[in-house]
Protein backbone atom coordinates (compact mmCIF):
# COMPACT_ATOMS: atom_id res chain seq x y z
CA UNK A 1 0.00 0.00 0.00
CA UNK A 2 1.25 3.47 -0.77
CA UNK A 3 1.44 6.10 1.92
CA UNK A 4 -1.74 8.15 2.30
CA UNK A 5 -2.03 11.68 3.70
CA UNK A 6 -3.97 12.11 6.93
CA UNK A 7 -6.59 14.18 5.15
CA UNK A 8 -7.56 11.08 3.14
CA UNK A 9 -9.50 10.04 6.26
CA UNK A 10 -11.50 13.31 6.39
CA UNK A 11 -15.26 12.85 6.39
CA UNK A 12 -15.06 9.11 7.04
CA UNK A 13 -16.29 7.25 10.11
CA UNK A 14 -13.90 5.65 12.58
CA UNK A 15 -14.95 3.24 15.32
CA UNK A 16 -12.73 3.37 18.40
CA UNK A 17 -13.16 0.69 21.06
CA UNK A 18 -11.94 1.38 24.58
CA UNK A 19 -12.57 5.03 23.81
CA UNK A 20 -13.19 6.30 27.33
CA UNK A 21 -9.56 6.41 28.49
CA UNK A 22 -5.89 5.89 27.68
CA UNK A 23 -4.93 5.41 24.05
CA UNK A 24 -8.58 5.60 23.02
CA UNK A 25 -8.73 9.26 24.02
CA UNK A 26 -5.64 10.06 21.97
CA UNK A 27 -6.86 8.15 18.92
CA UNK A 28 -10.12 10.09 19.10
CA UNK A 29 -8.46 13.50 19.36
CA UNK A 30 -5.93 12.79 16.60
CA UNK A 31 -8.56 11.60 14.16
CA UNK A 32 -11.11 14.30 15.01
CA UNK A 33 -8.44 16.94 14.42
CA UNK A 34 -8.34 15.71 10.82
CA UNK A 35 -12.11 15.85 10.41
CA UNK A 36 -12.82 12.16 10.93
CA UNK A 37 -16.28 11.38 12.34
CA UNK A 38 -16.17 9.07 15.34
CA UNK A 39 -18.03 6.26 17.04
CA UNK A 40 -16.84 5.88 20.63
CA UNK A 41 -17.49 2.47 22.21
CA UNK A 42 -16.75 1.55 25.83
CA UNK A 43 -18.52 0.98 29.14
CA UNK A 44 -18.21 4.43 30.68
CA UNK A 45 -20.91 6.49 29.04
CA UNK A 46 -20.36 9.66 31.07
CA UNK A 47 -16.67 9.85 30.13
CA UNK A 48 -17.45 9.28 26.46
CA UNK A 49 -20.26 11.85 26.40
CA UNK A 50 -17.87 14.47 27.76
CA UNK A 51 -15.21 13.50 25.22
CA UNK A 52 -17.77 13.58 22.40
CA UNK A 53 -18.94 17.04 23.41
CA UNK A 54 -15.36 18.34 23.55
CA UNK A 55 -14.49 16.90 20.14
CA UNK A 56 -17.62 18.27 18.48
CA UNK A 57 -16.86 21.72 19.85
CA UNK A 58 -13.13 21.68 19.01
CA UNK A 59 -13.24 20.10 15.57
CA UNK A 60 -16.82 20.26 14.27
CA UNK A 61 -17.05 16.51 13.63
CA UNK A 62 -19.92 14.10 14.22
CA UNK A 63 -19.40 11.86 17.26
CA UNK A 64 -21.66 8.99 18.30
CA UNK A 65 -21.44 7.37 21.71
CA UNK A 66 -22.10 3.63 22.05
CA UNK A 67 -22.04 2.58 25.72
CA UNK A 68 -21.40 -1.17 25.74
CA UNK A 69 -19.56 -3.81 27.73
CA UNK A 70 -17.37 -5.21 24.98
CA UNK A 71 -16.30 -8.10 27.21
CA UNK A 72 -19.85 -9.50 27.19
CA UNK A 73 -20.60 -12.32 24.73
CA UNK A 74 -22.23 -11.07 21.55
CA UNK A 75 -21.14 -7.47 22.12
CA UNK A 76 -19.54 -7.15 18.69
CA UNK A 77 -22.72 -8.20 16.89
CA UNK A 78 -24.84 -5.85 18.99
CA UNK A 79 -22.53 -2.95 18.21
CA UNK A 80 -22.53 -3.75 14.50
CA UNK A 81 -26.35 -3.98 14.42
CA UNK A 82 -26.66 -0.65 16.25
CA UNK A 83 -24.42 1.12 13.74
CA UNK A 84 -26.15 -0.53 10.78
CA UNK A 85 -29.46 0.73 12.13
CA UNK A 86 -28.00 4.26 12.20
CA UNK A 87 -26.65 3.86 8.64
CA UNK A 88 -23.07 4.40 9.82
CA UNK A 89 -20.43 2.93 7.51
CA UNK A 90 -17.22 2.33 9.42
CA UNK A 91 -14.19 2.98 7.21
CA UNK A 92 -11.60 2.90 10.01
CA UNK A 93 -11.67 0.40 12.90
CA UNK A 94 -9.39 0.93 15.87
CA UNK A 95 -9.52 -2.26 17.93
CA UNK A 96 -8.12 -0.72 21.08
CA UNK A 97 -10.22 -2.18 23.94
CA UNK A 98 -8.36 -4.59 26.18
CA UNK A 99 -6.80 -5.01 29.60
CA UNK A 100 -4.30 -7.14 31.51
CA UNK A 101 -4.19 -9.08 34.75
CA UNK A 102 -1.06 -9.18 36.88
CA UNK A 103 -0.31 -12.24 38.99
CA UNK A 104 0.27 -15.96 38.65
CA UNK A 105 -2.43 -17.65 36.57
CA UNK A 106 -3.43 -20.08 39.30
CA UNK A 107 -3.77 -17.33 41.86
CA UNK A 108 -6.17 -15.35 39.64
CA UNK A 109 -9.87 -16.29 39.53
CA UNK A 110 -10.45 -18.07 36.24
CA UNK A 111 -13.58 -15.97 35.67
CA UNK A 112 -11.43 -12.84 35.49
CA UNK A 113 -9.00 -14.46 33.07
CA UNK A 114 -11.87 -15.68 30.88
CA UNK A 115 -13.36 -12.17 30.83
CA UNK A 116 -10.02 -10.75 29.69
CA UNK A 117 -9.72 -13.38 26.96
CA UNK A 118 -13.27 -12.64 25.83
CA UNK A 119 -12.40 -8.95 25.36
CA UNK A 120 -8.81 -9.17 24.16
CA UNK A 121 -9.34 -12.05 21.74
CA UNK A 122 -12.95 -13.03 21.05
CA UNK A 123 -14.58 -9.61 20.78
CA UNK A 124 -11.58 -8.21 18.91
CA UNK A 125 -11.78 -11.05 16.39
CA UNK A 126 -15.54 -10.68 15.96
CA UNK A 127 -15.27 -6.91 15.41
CA UNK A 128 -12.45 -7.44 12.93
CA UNK A 129 -14.53 -10.00 11.06
CA UNK A 130 -17.81 -8.06 11.03
CA UNK A 131 -16.40 -4.69 9.96
CA UNK A 132 -13.52 -6.08 7.90
CA UNK A 133 -15.89 -8.16 5.81
CA UNK A 134 -17.81 -5.04 4.83
CA UNK A 135 -14.58 -3.20 4.05
CA UNK A 136 -13.43 -6.04 1.79
CA UNK A 137 -16.72 -5.92 -0.10
CA UNK A 138 -16.27 -2.16 -0.61
CA UNK A 139 -12.58 -2.75 -1.42
CA UNK A 140 -11.65 0.04 0.95
CA UNK A 141 -10.90 0.31 4.67
CA UNK A 142 -8.35 0.51 7.46
CA UNK A 143 -8.06 -1.51 10.67
CA UNK A 144 -5.64 -0.94 13.54
CA UNK A 145 -5.27 -3.77 16.05
CA UNK A 146 -3.62 -2.78 19.32
CA UNK A 147 -1.28 -5.58 20.37
CA UNK A 148 1.66 -4.97 22.71
CA UNK A 149 5.40 -5.29 23.10
CA UNK A 150 4.64 -8.33 25.28
CA UNK A 151 3.30 -10.05 22.15
CA UNK A 152 6.92 -10.93 21.35
CA UNK A 153 7.63 -12.94 24.49
CA UNK A 154 6.13 -14.93 27.36
CA UNK A 155 6.01 -13.07 30.68
CA UNK A 156 5.62 -14.78 34.05
CA UNK A 157 2.97 -12.93 36.11
CA UNK A 158 1.31 -11.77 32.87
CA UNK A 159 1.05 -15.23 31.29
CA UNK A 160 -2.50 -15.05 29.89
CA UNK A 161 -2.35 -11.35 29.00
CA UNK A 162 0.88 -11.73 27.01
CA UNK A 163 -0.64 -14.73 25.24
CA UNK A 164 -3.69 -12.69 24.19
CA UNK A 165 -1.47 -10.03 22.70
CA UNK A 166 0.59 -12.62 20.83
CA UNK A 167 -2.69 -13.73 19.28
CA UNK A 168 -3.59 -10.15 18.30
CA UNK A 169 -0.23 -9.59 16.62
CA UNK A 170 -0.33 -12.90 14.74
CA UNK A 171 -3.90 -12.27 13.63
CA UNK A 172 -3.15 -8.73 12.48
CA UNK A 173 -0.05 -9.65 10.49
CA UNK A 174 -1.84 -12.52 8.73
CA UNK A 175 -4.87 -10.37 7.93
CA UNK A 176 -2.57 -7.68 6.55
CA UNK A 177 -1.69 -10.11 3.75
CA UNK A 178 -5.16 -11.66 3.44
CA UNK A 179 -6.98 -8.36 3.03
CA UNK A 180 -4.40 -6.38 1.06
CA UNK A 181 -5.72 -7.71 -2.31
CA UNK A 182 -9.17 -6.47 -1.24
CA UNK A 183 -8.03 -2.88 -0.67
CA UNK A 184 -8.06 -3.11 3.15
CA UNK A 185 -5.09 -2.11 5.30
CA UNK A 186 -4.54 -3.98 8.58
CA UNK A 187 -1.85 -2.70 10.94
CA UNK A 188 -0.85 -4.05 14.35
CA UNK A 189 0.39 -1.51 16.90
CA UNK A 190 2.74 -2.81 19.60
CA UNK A 191 3.16 -0.29 22.44
CA UNK A 192 5.49 -0.84 25.34
CA UNK A 193 4.61 0.33 28.83
CA UNK A 194 2.40 3.40 28.39
CA UNK A 195 0.92 5.87 30.88
CA UNK A 196 -2.69 4.79 30.45
CA UNK A 197 -3.75 3.45 33.83
CA UNK A 198 -2.98 -0.10 32.67
CA UNK A 199 -1.15 -1.04 35.87
CA UNK A 200 -3.98 0.05 38.14
CA UNK A 201 -6.51 -1.94 36.13
CA UNK A 202 -4.17 -4.96 36.10
CA UNK A 203 -3.62 -4.83 39.85
CA UNK A 204 0.10 -4.13 39.50
CA UNK A 205 2.53 -1.59 40.88
CA UNK A 206 4.88 0.12 38.43
CA UNK A 207 8.49 -0.86 39.01
CA UNK A 208 11.26 1.75 38.89
CA UNK A 209 12.56 0.22 35.66
CA UNK A 210 9.14 0.37 34.00
CA UNK A 211 8.73 3.99 35.02
CA UNK A 212 11.93 4.81 33.13
CA UNK A 213 10.62 3.02 30.03
CA UNK A 214 7.10 4.43 30.11
CA UNK A 215 5.87 6.37 27.08
CA UNK A 216 3.12 8.97 27.00
CA UNK A 217 0.01 7.82 25.13
CA UNK A 218 -0.02 10.59 22.52
CA UNK A 219 3.11 9.56 20.59
CA UNK A 220 2.05 5.91 20.83
CA UNK A 221 -1.33 6.65 19.27
CA UNK A 222 0.26 8.88 16.64
CA UNK A 223 2.71 6.15 15.64
CA UNK A 224 -0.16 3.72 15.17
CA UNK A 225 -2.17 6.02 12.93
CA UNK A 226 0.94 6.97 10.97
CA UNK A 227 1.75 3.30 10.35
CA UNK A 228 -1.85 2.66 9.29
CA UNK A 229 -1.65 5.45 6.73
CA UNK A 230 1.67 4.07 5.50
CA UNK A 231 0.12 0.65 4.99
CA UNK A 232 2.49 -1.13 7.37
CA UNK A 233 1.76 -4.58 8.73
CA UNK A 234 3.14 -3.80 12.18
CA UNK A 235 4.77 -1.02 14.17
CA UNK A 236 6.48 -0.99 17.56
CA UNK A 237 6.06 2.39 19.26
CA UNK A 238 9.22 4.04 20.57
CA UNK A 239 12.93 3.49 19.92
CA UNK A 240 13.69 1.61 23.15
CA UNK A 241 10.75 -0.70 22.49
CA UNK A 242 11.92 -1.31 18.92
CA UNK A 243 15.33 -2.30 20.28
CA UNK A 244 13.69 -4.61 22.84
CA UNK A 245 11.55 -6.29 20.17
CA UNK A 246 14.57 -6.79 17.89
CA UNK A 247 16.73 -8.15 20.72
CA UNK A 248 14.27 -11.02 21.16
CA UNK A 249 15.63 -12.45 17.91
CA UNK A 250 19.09 -12.67 19.42
CA UNK A 251 18.46 -13.98 22.94
CA UNK A 252 17.26 -17.36 24.27
CA UNK A 253 13.60 -17.41 25.30
CA UNK A 254 14.54 -18.46 28.83
CA UNK A 255 16.65 -15.30 29.13
CA UNK A 256 13.76 -13.20 27.78
CA UNK A 257 11.40 -14.55 30.44
CA UNK A 258 13.89 -14.00 33.24
CA UNK A 259 14.63 -10.44 32.11
CA UNK A 260 10.99 -9.46 31.77
CA UNK A 261 10.15 -10.99 35.14
CA UNK A 262 12.80 -8.79 36.78
CA UNK A 263 11.62 -5.65 34.97
CA UNK A 264 7.94 -6.17 35.68
CA UNK A 265 8.22 -7.22 39.32
CA UNK A 266 11.27 -5.19 40.40
UniProtKB/TrEMBL annotation:
Keyword field contains GTP-binding: no
InterPro entries: NAD(P)-bd_dom_sf, Sc_DH/Rdtase_CS, SDR_fam
GO molecular function: oxidoreductase activity
Gene3D superfamilies: NAD(P)-binding Rossmann-like Domain
SUPFAM superfamilies: NAD(P)-binding Rossmann-fold domains
Pfam family, one: adh_short
Domain of life of the source: Bacteria
Keyword terms: Oxidoreductase
GO CC terms in record: membrane
Family: Belongs to the short-chain dehydrogenases/reductases (SDR) family.
Protein name: Short-chain dehydrogenase
